[in-house]
Design brief:
This protein has about 375 residues and is mainly α. It has two domains: about 1-175, Growth Hormone, Chain: A; about 195-385, MFS general substrate transporter like domains (Growth Hormone, Chain: A, Up-down Bundle). Helices cover about 85% and strands about 0% of the residues. The chain is globular, with a radius of gyration of 20 Å.
Length: about 375
């Protein structure tokens, strides 16, 4: 049952990743269908991010009241409903309205399962959990591509919604499996810690700043990597898109490989390793005096470096702050992550329009350095607090 539950959790995280890359792959067609500017996608993604931040902050209360298994099931159903809503939307305001339940569902799943795996499973399983999120983000663009070639974008959303409903059905059937870890669960113990009390715990604000920095760097790469290669190296759009996608594939493969070494290096060692590899990637990206192949390689290496950082930060939370506090703190971490990934890529867009795309390695270096300094200070703060 222990392994079956873990597989069920992996499946739920594939479901979490499925919608994340769907809007971007369909938007070139969707915005023309609805008669809105291509930049309007930013409004939808901001609404979705707002929902994820709210549900992340409320995740502790929901999980203590209903339990991880029911929060996961309900949230998966909520995202499936939102995807169906997208498929029936013929006005832009309808997308915005359906973005609310989608964001609320995604944030709750993210916070709930991250904490559950951090409490009950080893570091390697956390790496593989986030690897399966990457699998979901890789699958959905291919589903949308098939739908656009043979049907329309609405059919693509309905196909992915169908996959989500199948996942929800499997989660419903597997509800009894969650009892395997119930004796060690912290879900129903004590009153909720809440946001304010979480921030008062020594080291938490530092950790949030570090997590913000990591997610700012990762999201900037995802959104701007292709534009960076075109603007600084003059590569074709097709080639830039291919190497930009390799950044995400690098994260997915990197997290799979990380699972085999994370138990040996431990979370702090994996964070340091990822930071070092990311630094090499940034240096290669910024080596404009070298042939373009070095910048292209730097994009892929940056993805490999990012791979172990996110899951290792999450997995270390119960050890750093106690199992009884982990759900509240992980919920706040998720909110911090979404703030970084939502607002920093647009900031880079503003800066690059004034200073040029060559500032991207400097922008990324700032947040990577910020991340590792804040996380190292977190470990030092927690060591001194013991």
């Amino acid at each position: 049952m222990y392994i079956l539950l873990l597989l069920l959790i992996y499946l739920a995280f594939i479901g979490l990743g499925l919608p994340d890359s769907l809007l971007g792959s369909a938007w070139p067609v969707m915005h023309e269908f609805m008669g809105v500017p291509i930049s309007s996608m930013g409004i939808v993604t901001m609404i979705i991010s707002g929902g994820t931040i709210v549900s992340s902050l409320l995740s502790e209360r929901m999980i203590k009241r209903f339990g991880t298994r029911f929060v996961t099931l309900f949230s998966t159903l909520l995202t499936a409903l939102a995807l169906l809503g997208f498929s029936f939307s013929d006005r832009f305001y309808m997308l915005c309205l359906w973005g609310i339940p989608y964001g609320l569902g995604a944030g709750a799943i993210d916070a709930a399962l991250n904490n559950y795996v951090a409490l009950h499973y080893s570091s390697k399983h956390m790496s593989w959990l986030h690897c399966f999120w990457g699998v979901g983000t890789i699958i959905s663009p291919y589903v949308m591509s098939f739908a656009l070639l043979n049907y329309n974008w609405q059919a693509g959303y309905r196909m992915v919604a169908g996959l989500q409903l199948i996942i929800a059905l499997i989660l419903c059937i597997g509800l009894p499996l969650w009892k395997v870890n119930s004796p060690a669960s912290q879900e129903e113990s004590k009153k909720p810690l809440g946001l304010v009390k979480s921030l008062r715990i020594p080291g938490v604000p530092l950790l949030l700043a570090g997590f913000f920095g990591y997610c700012a760097a990762e999201a900037t790469c995802i959104h701007w990597m292709a534009s960076f290669l075109i603007g600084t190296r003059g590569v074709t759009k097709e080639r830039a898109a291919a190497f930009a996608s390799l950044f995400c594939i690098g994260i997915t493969i990197g997290r799979f490989v990380s699972g085999f070494i994370s138990d040996k290096l431990k979370d702090r060692g994996m964070i340091r390793l990822g930071t070092a590899v990311s630094a090499v990637g940034i240096l290669l990206m910024g080596a404009f005096f070298l042939p373009e192949v070095f910048s292209l390689a730097g994009c892929v290496i940056m993805g490999l470096g990012c791979a172990p950082v996110y899951p290792s930060i999450i997995h270390s939370t119960p050890d750093n702050f106690g199992a009884e506090n982990s759900q509240a703190i992980i919920g706040v971490q998720m909110a911090s992550a979404y703030l970084g990934s939502t607002f920093m890529p647009p900031l880079f867009g503003i800066l690059s329009s004034k200073l040029g795309m060559r500032i991207m390695p400097v922008f990324l270096a700032f947040f990577v350095v910020m991340m590792i300094i804040m996380i190292e200070l977190t470990y030092k703060k927690r060591r001194n607090a013991i």
